[in-house]
Amino acid sequence: MSRARPIERAALVVAVLVAALAVLGPLLAPHDPYAVNLAQSLQGPSAEHWFGTDVNGRDVLSRLLYGARETLPATLVVIAAATLIGTLIGTLAALGGKVLDEVLMRITDIGLSLPSIILALGLAAALGPGLRSAVIALALTWWPGYARLVRTLVREVKDAEYVDAARTLGVSRLRLVFAHILPNALGALYVQTTLDVSAVMLVISGLSFVGVGAQVPSAEWGAMIAAAANNLTNGWWAVVFPGLAIMLTALAYNLVGDWLRVRNDPTLREGAR
Amino acid sequence: MARFLLRRLITSVVVLAGLAVVTFLMTQVLPGDPARAAAGRNATAEQVAQVRARLGLDQPLWDQFLGYLGRLAHGDLGTSVFTQRPVLDDVAAMLPASVELVLAAMVINVVVAVPLGAFAAYRRGRAADTAARIVALLGMAVPVFWLGLMLQLVLAAQLRVFPLTGQLSFGHQVPRITGMTTLDGLLAGDWAALADALAHLALPAVTLAAAFVAVVARTVRSSMITTLDSDYIALARATGAGEFRVVVRHGLRNALVPASTILGMQLGWMLGSTVLVESIFGRTGIGAYAVTAVLQNDLYAVIGTVLVIGVVFVVMNVIVDLVQLWLNPRLRHTGRRRATPVAA
User: Fold this and answer.
1) Are A232 and A239 in contact (CB under 8 A)?
2) Residue B221: inside a domain, yes or no?
3) A–B: how many Cβ contacts below 8 A?
4) Is the same domain home to B148 and B16?
5) What was the ipTM of the complex prediction?
6) Were B209 and a residue from A122, A243, B70, B108 both cysteine, which residue would form a disulfide, CB within 3.0 to 4.6 Å?
7) Is A162 exposed, middle or buried (0-12, 13-18, 19+ CB in 10 A)?
């Protein structure tokens, strides 16, 4: 068992803290995140507005706290949906016979062969702009990686002796899959999903930044940066802080994911990381 | 070897077919009337009816799909509602600027990531290794569009080291030969324009490269560690070869094979990421074109860009496979598939 090093503990704390801030946002936000006050436009960081105000005079800190409630859940929904689709398709491919395996894996190949941001951009455009479209589009483009991983994991487990034993005892097929094969196969999946949190978050905020995702006046972090980019030189704080929020969160989840990966894989424990 | 190639080619054809299906479905979910969208906002009812007949929108879905494939085969990607020009012409005009950006980013990527990864492996577990790991972690966590804005803020707006946006300053002009401003400047022998174009290219290229450096450095590091521990490196040392020669000639050369796969894949990924970079720096490439098209609800232009980037991606995969065959003779005999590419 590899123990968490200080940096990894710090990352875990940050990851949990960001999630907590997202939950408690409305209680902690010092100002109304949507109240336009042009008299307060583009005020620099101060005691009253720690992270300054944006061009509409809205408090950047308050918007960040509310924005976490859009960026983080959107990311989690994408990961959850992609994991679900990927697990379903990967399991079917591993257990469903040769023809089904071939068909499903070729479909998976198609998904893996195209840049997800481009596919998501096209899909989101077809569905109409909005955070919901971005989430659906990204979930539909993100699952192939999981499908391939789950297929490998299930194939490793399905011929194990305890599965044979259960089968001999007359356990039903469905129960065999859900109670015996999947729980033992999916151990490695959560490592990958944790590592993917940052990647998905970057794409979600990127889609919002280019205008396909969350729309004005949303405080989604990418959308905040997009709205503030026009006033980059005279209001840098409205761009800098949302970006730092994305980076810090992504970094924390990367470190936690990396730690889980090493913990889960004995071959990585000595020096090889 | 023939089997390996054949299998890869079949996969590519399947992927291209899948791409056609996906983009066709995108045209189907379009809210509203696709004939009206294709004909343009100001089209008369008669024109819309003409377009409907031309696109075969009054026919069954399967026939429509065949018609769509036929048009694709003729290079007909539809007409952009926004520019009122054929999408293929628009994309062809925009592609060189994006290719220029991607190639510049790739050069930066290789020049930074390969030495970084190799050095980290050589000094494994020491300060330099930790530093490289931090750089890699930051590179994977930073939003590219935000990094672009930050570089713009500090190096262009504040310090004025680089120009803020565009591809060429006012007053310079290059003939359009390749469509890549730097190369055209070079071909025209206009050194001042070339320098100006390079200055415009620097920040977007660094921005685009940032996310990819981390992945390559990691790959080089881990394959370099395996290589440096192998017997032939010990043998090379034993023969008295200089340390630099051992590490670079014997070690790095072999460690670069896995990295070459990733680098090839990354060219395609980078082309996708131009979507996030080009509009920030006011570059007229297909990434910026796609974003404008999305915002203008110009569906055929969006789908055209998706198609072109997808095709480039598939072609890149085939090239990567060929390079792999050339670099790694073992593949020629076993016909084994290469490892799953790592997404950036």
Assistant:
1) yes
2) yes
3) 158
4) no
5) 0.87
6) B108
7) exposed
Alpha-carbon separation of residue B1 from A102, B318, B337 (angstroms)? 22, 14, 11
For B334, the token pair is: 């076993």
Amino acid at residue number B264:
G
- Domains of chain A as residue ranges with CATH: 6-30+54-266 (1.10.3720.10)
Dist CA A37 CA B77 (whole Å): 46
Tell me if B255 is assigned to some domain.
yes
Nearest CA in chain A to B126: A271
Over the stretch B281-337, which tens digit does the pLDDT of each residue have? 989 899 999 988 888 888 888 888 888 888 888 888 888 778 877 777 666 655 444
Contact A107 B18 (CB under 8 A): yes
Query: What span, in angstroms and rounded, lies between the C-alpha atoms of A160 and B187?
Result: 65
pLDDT at B167 over 90: no
Q: Give the angle B150-A128-A195 at the CA atoms, nearest 5°.
A: 50
pLDDT at B207: 94
Kindly state whether residues B56 and B120 are assigned to the same domain.
Answer: no
Residue B341 has pLDDT above 60, yes or no: no
| Residue of chain B nearest A125, judged by CA positions | B294
Residue B303, domain extent: 88-152+205-334
Q: What CATH number has the domain bearing residue B297?
A: 1.10.3720.10
Q: Answer whether residue B324 is part of any domain.
A: yes
Q: Is residue B249 part of a domain?
A: yes
* Average pLDDT over chain A, rounded to an integer: 85
Residues B97 and B57 in one domain: no
pLDDT tens sequence across A224-263: 999 888 888 888 888 999 999 999 999 999 888 888 887 7
Find residues 259-318 of chain B whose CB sits inside 8 Å of chain A.
Answer: 268-269, 271-273, 275-276, 279-280, 290-291, 293-295, 297, 299, 302-303, 305-306, 309-310, 313-314, 317
Indicate left, alpha or beta for A2 from its phi (over 0: left) and psi (-120 to 50: alpha): beta
Based on the structure, what is the number of domains in chain B?
2
DSSP secondary structure letter of residue A59: B
pTM exceeding the 0.95 threshold for the entire prediction = no
B294 and A114 within 8 Å at the Cβ level: the answer is: no
What single string gives the DSSP state of each residue in B273-316? Answer: HHHHHTTTTT--SHHHHHHHHHHTT-HHHHHHHHHHHHHHHHHH
Q: pLDDT grade, residue B338 (50/70/90)? A: very low
Count of residues in chain A: 273
Residues B306 and B263 in one domain: yes
> For the segment B224-279, what is each residue's pLDDT rounded down to a tens digit?
888 888 888 888 888 887 888 888 877 888 788 788 888 888 888 899 899 999 98
Domain endpoint, select from B28, B47, B73:
B73
Output the DSSP codes for B212-246. HHHHHHHHHHHHHHHHHTSHHHHHHHHTT--HHHI
Are residues B129 and B41 part of one domain? no
